[in-house]
From TrEMBL:
One of its GO terms (molecular function) is ATP binding. The keyword Transport applies. It comes from Planomicrobium okeanokoites (Planococcus okeanokoites). InterPro entries: AAA+_ATPase, ABC_SmlMolc_Importer, ABC_transporter-like_ATP-bd, ABC_transporter-like_CS, Mo/tungstate-bd_C_term_dom, P-loop_NTPase. This is ABC transporter ATP-binding protein.
Amino acid sequence: MASLHINQIEKKFAPSKTGQQAPFALGPIDLTIREGEFFSLLGPSGCGKTTLLKLVAGLTEADAGNILFGDNDLTKVAPEARRFSMIFQQPLLFPHMTIEENAAFGLKMQKIGKKERLLEARRMLAMTGLSGFEHRYPDELSGGQQQRVALARALVAKPRLLLMDEPFSALDPGLREEMRELLGTIQHELGVTVLFVTHDRQEAFELSDRIGIMGGGRLLQVGTPVDLYERPESTTVASFLGLKNIVEGTVHSRNFESHDGQISINTGQELADGRYCLIFRPETLMPATFGNQATVPSVQFTGKVSKLKFNQGTYVALVQAGDEMLECMVTRDQAENMEVGQLIKIFVKQSDLQFVEY
Ligand code: ATP
């Protein structure tokens, strides 16, 4: 086993003759996926996730750059010789084969004897929760069960890398969550390296060790889910992650001022003067309704409670600070002691302030 190295990979697509399809350029992209890692490519539709996955799989030829597995250059190696498995949105099972024959297919291609490959297929079907279904045919299974077979079939071949392109997006939300949990457990148990493509933030955050955020054919930022949530490096990444409370303003002599001047705080860090977005994570905003004072270096501003929302165990106060409507997570006690229309002070630790260049 070894890491996958993507070096300076580039791919261009010309516009379609009718002009309906614009030209597209991917890369250059550099990325290393470590052995045993669950890595997701996350980004909006059309940003190039599938193209990058296909380059890794060998299904698309790169214009420049190379792909290595350990020291082994795979750039010119045929897809079937890469020893990778791929799972798509549709399970793509063979309709005339039973479930266990489907699951054993990869091993048949590897010329493994019938007894051994069926044994291995049954073991993997048991892992994916399909014991008892071995002799059925694909059309006798639900969509979710068929995708479990696709997973078993991919894993039976003991791939060096498992490539997954939006594998759960055709399933309904409950089933999606179930499949997500199953995949997480199996990946952990087998230690298989996964490269997973999705545009679903929650899916990427729940499953991944690291995530690469893509936009416009580029890899914008790579990090753990916590890194990305707490330290987005650009407003594009922050907006794509759906981060709340992004306030535009300017920094002058270490002081940030929102554009209407309502929020004016010391940045607590060396920043060149200029335009910035300040991101307040909702759980870092502390309302001072009981006269509680922050015990660490912090800044404060004033706002008016505009709404209190209860959502299955958590409370959110919407606080209007000038033109900005900020979401603030509050405790039950705080929520019960707040009133709509009340002016409150909000404290934030300086270390929780996240500035991003505009
Ligand atoms: P989605 O989430 O919608 O699947 P994506 O991020 O996976 O999107 P890609 O499928 O990689 O995006 O496509 C990126 C761009 O490249 C799109 O504009 C697409 O139309 C274009 N494209 C992809 N494959 C080809 C091709 N074979 N020929 C021409 N253009 C292509």
